[in-house]
Specification:
Layout lengths: L8 E3 L12 E9 L2 E3 L2 E4 L2 E9 L4 H13 L4 E8 L4 E9 L1
Parallel strand pairs: 1-2
Antiparallel strand pairs: 2-5, 3-4, 5-7, 6-7
């Protein structure tokens, strides 16, 4: 999915000193979102976080990401924060897969 964006991406983080220029993406599976029944995991699912880092607000990139998530039928929640120390925007897409 992320290859379609044509920008660098890595699981969790880039190695120190190897971080590319923005925009770039980090993704990770921070926790599970399982459904239980009869004291067992009846259906397992993983939360997928897609963190998009840019040095300026990029609505066109966000739209492309949202189109990709929608094409893969992934419901997502979106949030955004400015990271002052890094001078970067982080747009977070959180979904369950």
């Amino acid at each position: 999915m992320l290859e379609k964006l044509g920008i660098p991406y890595a699981y969790d983080h880039f190695a120190e000193g190897e971080s590319p220029e923005p925009p770039f993406v980090c993704f990770l599976y921070p926790r599970s979102d399982n459904f239980g029944a009869d004291n067992i995991v009846y259906a397992s699912a993983s939360v997928l976080d897609i963190e998009v880092y840019t040095d300026y607000k990029d609505p066109a990139l966000e739209e492309r990401i949202e189109e990709i998530l929608t094409a893969h039928e992934l419901y997502y929640e979106k949030s955004e924060v400015w990271i002052e120390s890094e001078k970067l925007y982080e747009v977070l897409y959180e979904t369950v897969v």
